[in-house]
């Protein structure tokens, strides 16, 4: 029942712990400098569990938090006292609390976003959260190892030495997920141990894969033009795009084995020259382990998801990057010693924590990278980390860029998220990758992007800028690449990267002939801020509310809103702007073929005829075998009579008795509900067509049932919407669409005697591509009914899209046909009343 | 709760000389190797590498401590009792459970472990429950060589008297795995009661314009649902038609308390939230439509749910439908009849179920698909509604099309279908969404709002501007604007002498389409309202930021939609947005 949840890292601190021969376990660095105490974090979480503070949930959340306080041996109380005295000072450096509060407000899953009244609470919690000023407490004595010379004794409300001990796992945790929960906060780390041979990485046997660092591309340092980098670039592209392909187990998480992600790339480029010096230096390694620990406090129900996300995307990748650097140049240990040094000195001079931290961050690249990590990840942004001059990379927890369904009032809201089914993977093998046909909607202005790019690119910026400037949301990538003479693969590659790093979104190309509506998921709370920025952008055009009002009536082609041809471009720009903000979404058309009773009757008639012909033929064959029997002679005559082409009347007479039986059978079948009884019924049609159809109905009916989520009645679900859509985006490998249960069960046995339309009910063909033989015949028959030859010719092609999963708007681009022509074709089909059309996003 | 989720329960003690030891483990050999005949071949994980987390430093004692190792999640609650009577003045133990790492709702187990830890602490402090049997245990271990021996020792071969703690471990494991709860008497005055409570997500905020609908029939429960007075008073009025604020009125309860009571019901999953049904509302299909089309069982469920048990009304409307080229007034009556039908179906369904209930009021609760089945599932009550019809009907709803116009468009198909239930079913299943209506004050608004309270606003000004806007809108909206004006007067008259239900559905949102010609024609009326309500127009301002849908505004102000719309338009430059 994992619903898609809004992004929320729940990150509250990042710690770096090392274990060395000289110093033992050591908490080298933590960020933010004034971390909220664990007790405060735990207390903070109560509203997230129960929405309103006032609610009297049965689980003792409140008692737990209060107990927590009491059990921390009045540290909590001391914290509180100190908060009062030094909130102002604490705020400056401990900026985390403020930012958290902001984020929590947009986080419906958490407490803050549900109720407006809770903002007050948040503020309270905030004060608690700030109660971290343990830094100035002089507490001599307790630290056994440190000999009481520590000035700053607690981090997160824990004694530093206790924390150090807890966060230094045994070697059994090497390269495994380290997960330690203390009440409701959790420490997630990826401990890295030095190898037995005192190296930090295996001696290089061979380059595993020639991979350019994919994450470099996050900084948009895409190296284009280098002919030989092409292949590697593509390879890495694919690895980057599948960061979530792990089959929800933890194997890859534990393994660390594969060289995917951050550190992989640099190995190849820098490995050779650095390995030698690292081996010499490593002769007697001082540091034996380091552990980067991310401190989260996820809500109970999101626990597994959040921890997994953090570990897979951030913790593990970051630790690996550090390990790579460590192997290369003793980076971690050198920097750690630097940090420890500064701390030591500051401690002796009684300097303030925040000032010292500023100094540390300015001096140590490692400390700075941790700070950057924290600031970005805790705000659900992308962290660009520069380890040193040659190695920089990016980290993020990937976010959804669209949802296919609208959250109900009882589900976590994600206002502003793009609402569309166009990203839902349709699990058809014959589906060409849509990327080429999609357009790229930049989420920032091209110029902003280009500038950003020039900021940290090293030379290829101009080439890239050219690409980025070429991207417009009204043209598909294919068209753009043709027009600007860009290789299609390059284009796709850039597109994928821009999408992965949240710079762009793949959309169906914007077109004036498409229909757009105000998205039901639009974030109306952002409206007041959006109005001015819109009017700056489009000062002479109708205001934002006006445009939204226009788009919220009866759905019409966007074209009809454009007053004149000169306005066209401007209006398309407005549309792109609206799409970007999730204000509007495309209304897409989906259709199924509706088979009328008439068609069914016709097909049934035909089939009946065939059956009889066949029977007659069989009979004749038998007759020829046993020549002597007179009866067979009769039948022979009969069959020849039949084959002469006058089937109807004699036909009815011959097989009357058995037909009556079957007739009864058929009449009970008329109601779709009795579909089960159809299986193995004696009325199995004699023709091949009939028998296969009954076979095929029987299987999916039984198999589709349990899989179908509809079984969940509203009383069990808390209106957790039981739809396949929920699964589609998360799991790329959706089980094949369940076979239509409706139509085949309605399918009458061919032999019902007078196959007149009254005996049939119209039904839908749910998936023409997977139609059973009777359905296929219906479809064929419908195809024959079209008058225009063009329609008849294109009918099989159109059928591919009439399964309710493909938007008819996409047909033109996919098939390379003119939009107008496709529209005309569908209009022709629609005119005949053959379609059931649904329009949604 | 997953069945048999607890893989192991074990009791660890810190001994001042021997260090951390597992004294009891269920099953044998799950934590440390054991020679017992039934022991597991290999422990679930390596005990030595995790002792730090089972017997941590004092800082981490008396807290729920969990860690993951070897794909298992160990949840412990280390307890440290400091008292002079123990050696080194402290007594440290941990009673921990082992789950598979991927168990989603492990927090429920955490709560049990926490409770157990505290209880054992209490028992130990009271009478040395743990330490009293321990001397023997440690001695046992002294005699036997292996550490695993000691683990089993307490329970089996070691003592003449079976260890109480071992028995406790065993019972907790078995009972929690089998029944998700347990009750273990310890002595005359102490009993351990444990239960796994599943964690529910926090309930969303409840707004006055939400319409609650029960998903289970609470009155069928033998014991009263709650001793909460508000809840008891509110319950009879929850029927999927009344909004929260109306329920508060009917039950004569405080609105905020009512909201909270309903929030509780949501929390426990026995209630869902709908929107206020009215024939002026706009509904459109969602992407779940594809699911509805392909899933036959939902279609059947729908057919059962929406069918009107008595056909007479349906026949009437059929006749009307065939003569659909009648005057506007006639159509109005069709509409009202349709609403009547919704109405009647409710009351009739309630009459079918009242037999079982003593209180006829409560029978109104039975409006959900699941509870109504029995009432409606008599095959003789009406013709079967074909799946195809349902699909066509849902598909024909669209943005910009008020329900009443839709009814007129599809009258022949609606034979025997209760429209309100039809819509409600769509909402419940997520096939439909309500297209809400918002008013957004544009930039010119603050100026006019500043002026209007000052009273200097000439009555003609807002009306003329609104005339202008209206024409604007009609060009934008195009053809859908219903050409059949329903005199809201006559309709409300019609509704007023009817019993509660239909009228309540319409009290908040009188189904008046905006941009209607007669609205444009009546500037006099509008200016009248403006003059009268110029002071009352003030509270409107806060609703015009696009975050408050008309349902909400109407509920807050206690006014009909048409009145609110007029007021809103009179208040200044306003754009109407449907979302």
From TrEMBL, chain A:
<dbReference type="GO" id="GO:0038202">
    <property type="term" value="P:TORC1 signaling"/>
</dbReference>
<keyword id="KW-0469">Meiosis</keyword>
<feature type="compositionally biased region" description="Acidic residues">
    <location>
        <begin position="70"/>
        <end position="82"/>
    </location>
</feature>
<feature type="compositionally biased region" description="Basic and acidic residues">
    <location>
        <begin position="136"/>
        <end position="148"/>
    </location>
</feature>
<feature type="compositionally biased region" description="Low complexity">
    <location>
        <begin position="54"/>
        <end position="69"/>
    </location>
</feature>
<dbReference type="GO" id="GO:1990130">
    <property type="term" value="C:GATOR1 complex"/>
</dbReference>
<feature type="compositionally biased region" description="Pro residues">
    <location>
        <begin position="747"/>
        <end position="757"/>
    </location>
</feature>
<dbReference type="GO" id="GO:0010508">
    <property type="term" value="P:positive regulation of autophagy"/>
</dbReference>
<feature type="compositionally biased region" description="Polar residues">
    <location>
        <begin position="708"/>
        <end position="717"/>
    </location>
</feature>
<feature type="domain" description="GATOR1 complex protein NPRL3 C-terminal HTH">
    <location>
        <begin position="773"/>
        <end position="830"/>
    </location>
</feature>
<dbReference type="GO" id="GO:0051321">
    <property type="term" value="P:meiotic cell cycle"/>
</dbReference>
<keyword id="KW-0732">Signal</keyword>
<comment type="similarity">
    <text>Belongs to the NPR3 family.</text>
</comment>
<comment type="function">
    <text>Mediates inactivation of the TORC1 complex in response to amino acid starvation. Required for meiotic nuclear division.</text>
</comment>
<dbReference type="GO" id="GO:0005774">
    <property type="term" value="C:vacuolar membrane"/>
</dbReference>
<feature type="region of interest" description="Disordered">
    <location>
        <begin position="639"/>
        <end position="764"/>
    </location>
</feature>
<dbReference type="Pfam" id="PF24064">
    <property type="entry name" value="HTH_NPRL3"/>
</dbReference>
<dbReference type="GO" id="GO:1904262">
    <property type="term" value="P:negative regulation of TORC1 signaling"/>
</dbReference>
<dbReference type="GO" id="GO:0034198">
    <property type="term" value="P:cellular response to amino acid starvation"/>
</dbReference>
<dbReference type="Pfam" id="PF03666">
    <property type="entry name" value="NPR3"/>
</dbReference>
<protein>
    <recommendedName>
        <fullName>Nitrogen permease regulator 3</fullName>
    </recommendedName>
</protein>
<dbReference type="InterPro" id="IPR056603">
    <property type="entry name" value="HTH_NPRL3"/>
</dbReference>
From TrEMBL, chain B:
<feature type="compositionally biased region" description="Polar residues">
    <location>
        <begin position="473"/>
        <end position="493"/>
    </location>
</feature>
<dbReference type="InterPro" id="IPR009348">
    <property type="entry name" value="NPR2-like"/>
</dbReference>
<protein>
    <submittedName>
        <fullName>Nitrogen permease regulator 2</fullName>
    </submittedName>
</protein>
<dbReference type="GO" id="GO:1990130">
    <property type="term" value="C:GATOR1 complex"/>
</dbReference>
<feature type="compositionally biased region" description="Low complexity">
    <location>
        <begin position="452"/>
        <end position="466"/>
    </location>
</feature>
<dbReference type="GO" id="GO:0005096">
    <property type="term" value="F:GTPase activator activity"/>
</dbReference>
<dbReference type="GO" id="GO:0005774">
    <property type="term" value="C:vacuolar membrane"/>
</dbReference>
<dbReference type="Pfam" id="PF06218">
    <property type="entry name" value="NPR2"/>
</dbReference>
<feature type="region of interest" description="Disordered">
    <location>
        <begin position="445"/>
        <end position="499"/>
    </location>
</feature>
<dbReference type="GO" id="GO:1904262">
    <property type="term" value="P:negative regulation of TORC1 signaling"/>
</dbReference>
<dbReference type="GO" id="GO:0010508">
    <property type="term" value="P:positive regulation of autophagy"/>
</dbReference>
<comment type="similarity">
    <text>Belongs to the NPR2 family.</text>
</comment>
């Amino acid at each position: 029942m994992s619903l898609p949840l809004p992004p929320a890292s729940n990150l509250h601190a990042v710690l770096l712990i090392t274990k060395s021969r000289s110093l033992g376990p050591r908490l080298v660095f933590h960020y933010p400098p004034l971390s909220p105490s664990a007790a405060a974090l735990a207390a903070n979480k109560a509203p997230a569990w129960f929405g309103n503070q006032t609610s009297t949930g049965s689980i003792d959340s409140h008692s737990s938090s209060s107990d927590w306080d009491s059990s921390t041996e009045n540290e909590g109380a001391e914290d509180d006292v100190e908060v009062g005295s030094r909130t102002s000072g604490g705020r400056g450096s401990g900026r985390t609390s403020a930012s958290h509060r902001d984020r929590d407000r947009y986080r419906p899953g958490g407490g803050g976003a549900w109720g407006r009244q809770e903002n007050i609470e948040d503020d309270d919690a905030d004060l608690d959260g700030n109660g971290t000023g343990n830094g100035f407490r002089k507490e001599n004595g307790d630290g056994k190892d440190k000999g009481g010379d520590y000035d700053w004794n607690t981090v997160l409300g824990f004694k530093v030495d206790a924390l150090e001990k807890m966060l230094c796992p045994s070697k059994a945790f090497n390269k495994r997920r380290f997960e330690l929960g203390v009440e409701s906060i959790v420490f997630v780390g990826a401990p890295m141990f030095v190898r037995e041979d005192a190296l930090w990485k295996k001696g290089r046997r061979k380059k595993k894969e020639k991979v350019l660092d994919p994450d470099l591309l996050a900084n948009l340092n895409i190296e284009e033009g280098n002919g030989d980098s092409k292949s590697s670039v593509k390879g890495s592209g694919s690895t980057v795009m599948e960061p979530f392909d792990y089959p929800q187990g933890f194997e890859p998480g534990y393994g660390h084995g594969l060289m995917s992600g951050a550190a992989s790339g640099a190995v190849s480029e820098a490995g050779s020259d650095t390995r030698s010096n690292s081996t010499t230096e490593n002769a007697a390694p001082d540091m034996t382990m380091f552990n980067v620990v991310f401190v989260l406090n996820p809500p109970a129900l999101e626990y597994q998801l959040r921890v997994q996300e953090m570990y897979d995307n951030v913790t593990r990748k970051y630790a690996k990057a550090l390990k790579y650097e460590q192997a290369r140049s003793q980076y971690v240990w050198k920097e750690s010693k630097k940090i420890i040094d500064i701390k030591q000195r500051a401690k002796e001079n009684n300097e303030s924590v925040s000032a010292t931290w500023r100094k540390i961050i300015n001096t140590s690249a490692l400390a700075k990278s941790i700070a950057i990590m924290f600031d970005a990840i805790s705000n659900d942004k992308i962290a660009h980390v520069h380890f040193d001059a040659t190695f920089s990379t990016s980290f993020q927890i990937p976010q959804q860029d669209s949802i296919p369904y609208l959250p109900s009032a009882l589900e976590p809201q994600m206002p502003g998220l793009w609402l569309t089914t166009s990203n839902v993977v349709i699990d058809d093998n014959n589906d060409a990758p849509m990327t080429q046909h999609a357009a790229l909607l930049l989420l920032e202005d091209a110029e902003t992007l280009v500038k950003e790019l020039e900021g940290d690119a090293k030379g290829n910026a101009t080439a890239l800028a050219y690409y980025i400037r070429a991207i417009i949301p009204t043209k598909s990538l294919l068209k753009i690449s043709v027009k600007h003479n860009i290789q299609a693969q390059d284009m796709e590659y850039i597109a994928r990267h821009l999408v992965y790093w949240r710079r762009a979104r793949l959309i169906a190309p914007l077109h004036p002939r498409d229909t757009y509506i105000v998205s039901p998921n639009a974030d109306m709370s952002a409206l007041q801020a959006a109005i001015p920025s819109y009017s700056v952008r489009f000062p002479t055009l109708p205001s934002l509310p006006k445009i939204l009002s226009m788009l919220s009536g009866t759905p019409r082609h966007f074209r009809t809103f454009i007053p004149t041809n000169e306005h066209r471009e401007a209006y398309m720009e407005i549309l792109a702007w609206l799409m970007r903000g999730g204000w509007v979404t495309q209304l897409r058309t989906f259709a199924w073929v509706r088979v009328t009773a008439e068609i069914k009757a016709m097909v049934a008639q035909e089939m009946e005829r065939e059956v009889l012909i066949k029977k007659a033929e069989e009979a004749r064959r038998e007759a020829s075998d046993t020549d002597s029997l007179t009866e067979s002679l009769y039948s022979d005559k009969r069959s020849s009579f039949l084959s002469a082409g006058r089937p109807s009347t004699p036909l009815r007479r011959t097989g009357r008795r058995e037909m009556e039986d079957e007739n009864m059978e058929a009449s009970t079948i008329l109601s779709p509900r009795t579909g089960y009884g159809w299986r193995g019924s004696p009325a199995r049609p004699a023709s091949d067509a009939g028998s296969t159809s009954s076979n095929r109905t029987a299987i999916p009916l039984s198999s589709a049932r349990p899989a179908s989520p509809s079984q969940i009645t509203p009383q069990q679900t808390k209106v957790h919407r039981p739809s396949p859509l929920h699964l589609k985006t998360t799991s790329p490998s959706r089980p094949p669409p369940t076979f239509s249960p409706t139509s085949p069960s309605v399918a009458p046995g061919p032999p019902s005697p007078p196959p007149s339309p009254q005996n049939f009910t119209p039904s839908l063909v749910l998936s023409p591509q997977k139609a059973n033989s009777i359905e296929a015949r219906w479809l064929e028959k419908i195809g024959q009914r079209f008058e225009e030859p063009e329609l008849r010719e294109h009918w099989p092609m159109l059928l591919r899209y009439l399964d309710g999963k493909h938007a008819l708007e996409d047909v033109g681009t996919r098939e390379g046909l003119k939009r107008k022509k496709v529209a005309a074709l569908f209009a022709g089909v629609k005119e005949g009343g053959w379609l059931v059309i649904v329009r949604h996003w | 709760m997953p069945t048999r989720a607890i893989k192991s329960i074990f009791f660890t003690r810190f001994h001042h000389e021997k260090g951390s030891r597992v004294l009891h483990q269920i099953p044998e050999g799950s934590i440390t190797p054991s020679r017992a005949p039934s022991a597991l071949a290999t422990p679930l994980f390596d005990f030595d590498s995790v002792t730090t987390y089972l017997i941590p430093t004092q800082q981490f004692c008396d807290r729920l401590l969990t860690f993951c190792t070897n794909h298992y999640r160990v949840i412990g609650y280390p307890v440290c009792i400091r008292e002079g009577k123990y050696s080194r003045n402290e007594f440290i133990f941990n009673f921990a459970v082992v789950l598979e790492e991927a168990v989603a709702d492990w927090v429920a187990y955490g709560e049990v472990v926490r409770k157990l830890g505290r209880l054992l602490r209490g028992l130990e402090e009271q009478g040395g429950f743990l330490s009293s049997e321990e001397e023997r245990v440690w001695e046992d271990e002294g005699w036997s060589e292996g550490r695993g021996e000691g683990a089993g020792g307490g329970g089996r071969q070691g003592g003449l008297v079976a260890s109480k703690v071992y028995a406790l471990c065993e019972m907790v494991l078995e009972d929690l795995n089998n029944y998700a709860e347990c009750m273990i008497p310890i002595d005359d005055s102490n009993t351990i009661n444990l239960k796994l409570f599943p964690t529910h997500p926090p309930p969303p905020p409840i707004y006055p314009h939400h319409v609650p609908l029960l998903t289970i029939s609470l009155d069928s429960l033998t014991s009263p649902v709650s001793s909460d007075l508000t809840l008891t008073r509110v319950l009879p009025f929850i029927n999927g038609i009344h909004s929260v604020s109306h329920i508060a009125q009917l039950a004569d309860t405080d609105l905020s308390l009512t909201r909270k009571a309903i929030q509780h019901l949501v929390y426990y999953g026995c209630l869902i939230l709908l929107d206020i049904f009215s024939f002026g509302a706009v509904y459109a299909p969602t992407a779940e439509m594809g699911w509805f089309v392909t899933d036959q069982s939902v279609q059947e469920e729908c057919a059962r749910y929406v069918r009107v048990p008595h056909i007479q009304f349906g026949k009437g409307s059929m006749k009307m439908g065939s003569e659909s080229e009648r005057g506007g007034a006639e159509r109005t009556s069709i509409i009202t009849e349709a609403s009547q039908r919704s109405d009647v179906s409710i009351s009739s369904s309630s009459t079918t179920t009242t037999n079982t209930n003593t209180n006829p009021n409560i029978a109104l609760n039975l409006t959900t698909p699941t509870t109504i089945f029995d009432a409606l599932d008599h095959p003789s009550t009406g013709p079967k509604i074909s799946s195809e019809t349902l699909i066509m009907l849902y598909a024909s709803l669209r943005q910009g099309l008020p329900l009443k116009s839709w009814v007129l468009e599809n009258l022949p198909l609606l034979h025997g279908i209760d429209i309100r239930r039809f819509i409600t079913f769509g909402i419940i299943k997520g096939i439909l969404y309500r297209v809400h209506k918002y008013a957004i004050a544009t930039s010119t608004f603050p100026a006019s709002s500043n002026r209007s309270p000052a009273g200097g606003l000439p009555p003609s000004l807002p009306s003329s501007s609104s005339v202008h806007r209206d024409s604007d809108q009609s060009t934008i909206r195009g053809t859908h604007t219903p050409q059949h004006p329903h005199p809201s007067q006559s309709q409300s008259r019609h509704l007023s002498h009817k019993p509660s239900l239909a009228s309540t559905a319409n009290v908040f949102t009188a189904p008046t389409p905006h941009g209607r010609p007669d609205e444009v024609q009546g500037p006099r009326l509008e200016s009248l309202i403006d003059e009268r309500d110029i002071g009352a127009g003030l509270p409107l301002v806060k609703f015009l930021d696009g975050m408050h849908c008309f349902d909400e505004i109407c509920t807050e102000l206690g006014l009909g939609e048409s009145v609110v719309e007029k007021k809103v338009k009179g208040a200044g430059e306003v754009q109407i947005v449907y979302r």
